[in-house]
Specification:
This protein is α/β, with parallel strands linked by helices. The protein has 2 helices and 8 strands. The protein has a 4-stranded mixed β-sheet with strand order 1-4-3-2, covered by helices on one side. The chain has a 4-stranded mixed β-sheet with strand order 5-8-7-6, covered by helices on one side. The model has no long low-confidence stretch (mean pLDDT 91).
Length: 122
């Protein structure tokens, strides 16, 4: 059967796109591949096969925070990279009862990012 869906992009609301670009590029290893307007009100960030879009939301305090899960081929290496960069963790690397090794960070706008790897995916 022909695949009908191509790909997806997660869009996270942020209070300051420029500050978030700095966080995602310096702390999480993403690169900024697109910015719209000056100062930016929208940006596209990429790392490996992951795309995260940031959109300016001036009333971010009134929003529920977003969350995404990024599946990793080697979650321990990613965790150690972020430790070295001083990333603050909401949850340290742990083994879950649902067969994942994962850790959680919260970005500067309280968006939750879960990095995980299935225990059988090693």
């Amino acid at each position: 059967m022909k695949q009908l869906l191509s790909h997806q992009a997660t869009i996270l609301p942020v209070s300051n796109v420029e500050n978030s670009i700095i966080y995602y590029t310096t702390k999480l290893g993403f690169t900024c591949s697109f910015k719209w307007e000056i100062p930016a009100s929208y940006a596209v960030l990429k790392r490996d096969g992951i795309t995260i879009n940031l959109t300016l939301e001036e009333k971010i305090k009134d929003l529920e925070n977003a969350s995404i899960c990024i599946f990793c081929h080697d979650v321990i290496t990613v965790y150690e990279e972020y430790l070295k960069k001083g990333v603050a963790f909401a949850e340290q690397l742990n083994s879950t009862d649902y067969s994942m090794n994962e850790f959680v960070i919260v970005d500067i706008d309280n968006n939750k990012i879960i990095f995980g790897q299935g225990k059988d995916d090693s």
